[in-house]
Design goal:
Keywords: ANK repeat, Repeat. It comes from Heterosigma akashiwo (Chromophytic alga). It holds the Pfam family BTB. Helix content is 54%, strand content 9%. By secondary structure, it is α+β, with helices and mostly antiparallel strands. It has two domains: 108 residues, 2-Layer Sandwich (Potassium Channel Kv1.1, Chain A); 90 residues. Strand 1 and strand 2 form a beta hairpin. Helix 4 crosses helix 5 and helix 7 runs antiparallel to helix 8. The longest helix has 20 residues. The relative contact order is 0.08.
Length: 238
């Protein structure tokens, strides 16, 4: 509002030209990157009229190569420690900016908010992002999606590529080595399709939970098929 703008002492101008008056104590204290930009000299002076009034405020201005939509989320985090109300599509764009601006807290919040939006339609893209920006929580969610939707996803060429890359990531690979990606997927398959009751007792054949055992073995067989088709060998898991 007007009162907030009256006390602003710095302005960032987004890549699309929108000006963001901010309080240096909030924005620059949270991000070493923004602080370095602000301390590096100001390239222009912005004239920011206070909303609803004619009076103009002259603030030192720093251009920043981030869209106004993404920078709005950055400032929301700097001021309130939340990403509430942000659409998943926007949060995908926020991740690289949070990484560049040295805001690990924003990365963690964005990845946590994104986790429920991960599904078979975007899991490959999300997994690449999670690996690129070191987001283990998001990687774990991707492994859950693979475990649940394996029958629909395993024939995708990108899945085979991920398995092969994971196998080759080991510096010295023996023929019987496990494959990290498949180990993670197997862990989630076992967790989701445990075939046990709340007390950990295995289901009997006439128990509805017994179907989970069938689903688990079916998924393990699919993973073995993928490994075989790639000419890899791995430890068998029952």
């Amino acid at each position: 509002g007007g009162a907030g703008l009256a006390f602003a002492d710095l302005c960032f101008r987004a890549a699309d030209g929108r000006a963001f008056p901010v309080h240096r104590a909030f924005a620059c204290a949270r991000s070493p990157y923004l602080r370095a930009l602000a301390e590096g000299g100001f390239r222009e002076a912005a004239l920011l009229p206070e909303k609803g009034e004619d009076e103009e405020y002259h603030l030192p201005t720093v251009p920043i190569h981030i869209s106004s939509e993404v920078f709005s989320v950055v400032l929301q985090y700097c001021y309130s420690d939340t990403v509430d109300g942000c659409a998943p599509e926007l949060l995908f764009e926020v991740l690289p900016s949070a990484d560049e601006l040295l805001l690990p807290g924003l990365k963690a919040l964005a990845s946590g908010a994104l986790a429920p939006a991960v599904g078979p339609e975007n899991v490959f893209e999300v997994l690449r992002l999670a690996g690129l920006y070191s987001l283990p929580r998001l990687e774990s969610r991707c492994m859950q999606v693979f475990a649940i939707w394996l029958e629909e996803l395993y024939s995708n060429e990108e899945f085979s590529t991920l398995v092969y890359e994971s196998a080759m990531s080991l510096k010295t690979r023996e023929s019987a080595d496990s494959i990290p990606l498949l180990d993670e997927i197997r862990f989630h398959i076992t967790d989701i399709y445990s075939g046990t009751d709340a007390d950990g007792n295995p289901a009997e054949e006439d128990d509805p939970l017994y179907e989970q055992i069938h689903e688990r073995h079916k998924r393990f067989a699919i993973l073995d098929e993928v490994v075989s088709s790639l000419g890899l060998r791995t430890v068998k898991v029952s």
